[in-house]
């Protein structure tokens, strides 16, 4: 690289081309150089990108359906979250370009210097896409969690912590992206060492700083709702269930930690192509997880009682249950000489009354009739049911959670 920085422009075009076609570093003892078809990990990255795109696209589409068709309202976090998919899709180009320029998990002695310089340019594009995804998606997550956990018109600690983190998230990433663009003047000097200009700080110092800031924000977002979840007056099982939903971000935190470790151990003067591939995989995985954290809770509402999928599944189950019940009743009636007993209506009535009693928090007596009065051998049976439902506290009932949670209820 010293040759490229100091004397490259003084070389003849033929020598310049020969230098760019040479290996990026000397071949270690015991290794064999392969510049034409080196072993790589492209197949693993193709699988990762395919699964990631499928998950994020499906969940994003479901959330868009819910907000547009079911809720019929978009909040500011929806616009931010869906806008984040733009730079995320742009990062797909980065992943594909890396596969065709050197490849993933390829040691630098198997990479030409010209390809290595192209990789440096591609990674700058990835850094910009990464920062844009994070500033948009994390802002959307913070805003949505404020909407979920802070009652309207309330200005509690959660609200102010969320607002402070929102400002920090925006300012930090804006500063980082500016520093990335002006780290070298002109910026081309970052991937063309021979260009006239100056670099003010190393790429490693910038990457390590970005990684630590990003890890801090991820941990804060993960921890932020846990206190409220565990102070709800719910049974332990429900608390764990809700906590797990909001802890999907654990995977994002793990990816952020892996990326931080990768940046700190990356040797920019050593086997950079191999180490940078690992760092790129961590960064892509983290972007995917952050988008899933935002899309998944909103998409889940498509499967609630008001959701289109729940209605389809319920209709299918009801049809199968009704069909099986009728066959069973007619067989029983034929064998015993009794008229058929229609239990489906009574079961539906009981379920409805139970839901009403549950939502209103009172007890009542319900008289449910099973069967019809027939002639001859008709049977009439009156069953008296008494159901008592304990009214919950103002801060712990399921309806309250459904009211405050946009994918468990109808809060808009």
From TrEMBL:
GO terms for cellular component: membrane. Residues 400-412 have a biased composition (Basic and acidic residues). Residues 327-346, 388-412 are annotated as: Disordered. Residues 62-295 form the Rhodopsin domain. It is found in: Membrane. The chain crosses the membrane at residues 44-66, 119-143, 164-188, 208-228, 240-261, 281-303. Keywords: Membrane, Transmembrane, Transmembrane helix. Its main location: membrane. The keyword Membrane applies. It comes from the Eukaryota. InterPro entries: Rhodopsin_dom_fungi, SAT4-like. Coiled coil: none annotated. It is a multi-pass membrane protein. The keyword Transmembrane applies. Belongs to the SAT4 family. This is Rhodopsin domain-containing protein. It comes from Clonostachys solani.
């Amino acid at each position: 690289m010293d040759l490229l920085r100091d004397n490259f422009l003084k070389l003849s075009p033929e020598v310049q081309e020969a230098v760019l076609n040479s290996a990026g570093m000397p071949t270690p003892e015991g290794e064999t150089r392969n510049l034409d078809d080196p072993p790589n990990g492209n197949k693993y990255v193709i699988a990762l990108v395919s699964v990631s795109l499928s998950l994020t696209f499906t969940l994003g589409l479901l959330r868009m359906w819910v907000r547009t068709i079911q809720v019929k309202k978009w909040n500011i976090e929806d616009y931010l979250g869906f806008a984040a998919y733009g730079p995320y899709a742009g990062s797909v180009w980065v992943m594909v370009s890396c596969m065709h320029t050197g490849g993933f998990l390829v040691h630098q002695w198997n990479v030409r210097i010209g390809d290595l310089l192209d990789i440096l340019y591609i990674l700058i594009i990835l850094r910009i896409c990464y920062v844009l995804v994070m500033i948009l998606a994390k802002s959307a997550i913070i805003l949505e969690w404020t909407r979920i956990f802070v009652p309207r018109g309330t200005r509690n600690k959660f609200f102010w912590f969320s607002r402070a983190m929102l400002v920090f998230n925006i300012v930090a990433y804006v500063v980082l992206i500016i520093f990335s663009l002006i780290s070298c003047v002109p910026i081309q000097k970052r991937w063309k060492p021979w260009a006239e200009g100056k670099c003010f700080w190393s790429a490693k110092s910038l990457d390590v700083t970005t990684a630590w800031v990003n890890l801090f924000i991820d941990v804060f977002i993960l921890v932020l709702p846990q206190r409220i979840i565990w102070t709800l007056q719910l049974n332990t099982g429900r608390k764990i269930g809700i906590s797990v939903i909001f802890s999907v971000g654990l995977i994002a935190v793990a990816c952020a930690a892996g990326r931080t470790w990768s940046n700190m151990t990356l040797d920019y003067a050593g086997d950079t192509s191999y180490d940078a591939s690992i760092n790129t995989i961590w960064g892509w995985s983290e972007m995917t997880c952050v988008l899933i954290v935002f899309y998944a809770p909103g998409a889940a509402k498509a499967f609630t009682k008001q959701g289109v999928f729940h209605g389809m599944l319920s209709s299918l189950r009801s049809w199968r249950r009704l069909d099986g019940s009728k066959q069973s009743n007619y067989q029983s009636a034929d064998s015993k000489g009794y008229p058929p007993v229609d239990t489906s209506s009574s079961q539906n009535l009981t379920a409805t009354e139970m839901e009403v009693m549950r939502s209103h928090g009172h007890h009542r007596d319900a008289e449910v009739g099973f069967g019809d009065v027939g002639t001859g051998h008709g049977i009439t049976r009156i069953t008296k049911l008494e159901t008592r439902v304990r009214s919950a506290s103002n801060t712990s009932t399921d309806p309250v959670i459904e009211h405050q949670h946009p994918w468990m209820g109808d809060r808009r």
